[in-house]
Amino acid sequence: MKNDIIRAMEELNEELLFHTIREALQQGKTVYDIQNNLNLGLELVGKKYETGEYYIADLIVAGELIKQTLKIEGMSFHTLNDRKYLGKVAVGTVFEDIHDVGKDIFISMLNSAGFETIDLGVDVSAEKFVQVIKEEKPDIIGISGVLSMMGANIKRIIDCIDESNLRSQVKIIVGGASVNNKLFEYVGADSFTMDASEGVNICKSWMGIQ
């Protein structure tokens, strides 16, 4: 079953993926086990993209498949009220950027690792990030930016958090195709990554998990 889910995700085979997930749930597999297998499949999708076998469109399809799997009955993390989370992470794509594939993959992997997540969506204003810190009190803020000109917008969000006297309350990680070491230093985040798996490990380290 594990190999079927990984293979279906890797091949972007929607029919096979949904069938094997439902079958796994019927056999008593946990949401976390299934999510881990989905993430392994996503890693293979990412590798195919890196080698040129898959394209941006395939990454978008992968992101949409992940969204759809969470709608399958029994796959919602929110139904598990007794879950003890590692921490709370709020993630959103910077304002004036509507890309969500990387954000969705990161959130999926955070869920799999045991974090509680808040998906702020795309084109998220600085004020919205400030609001979620005040109301939801996350441990970590994740800011995604794909477009190359998003550096100033990411910095505006972090500056707004700082101006609201909330900067000391959260760790901030930035990620996406537009992010590099130079931009990271410019915006004033705590860390950056272009790899969702690495990003999860950074978040775990902040919560004292090795």
UniProtKB/TrEMBL annotation:
GO MF term list: cobalamin binding; metal ion binding; methionine synthase activity
Taxonomic source organism: Alkalibaculum sporogenes
GO cellular component: a single term: cytosol
Keyword GTP-binding annotated: no
Domain of life: Bacteria
Protein name, per record: Cobalamin-binding protein
Stretches assigned to the B12-binding domain: 86-210
Gene Ontology terms describing biological process: homocysteine metabolic process; tetrahydrofolate metabolic process
Keywords: Cobalt, Metal-binding
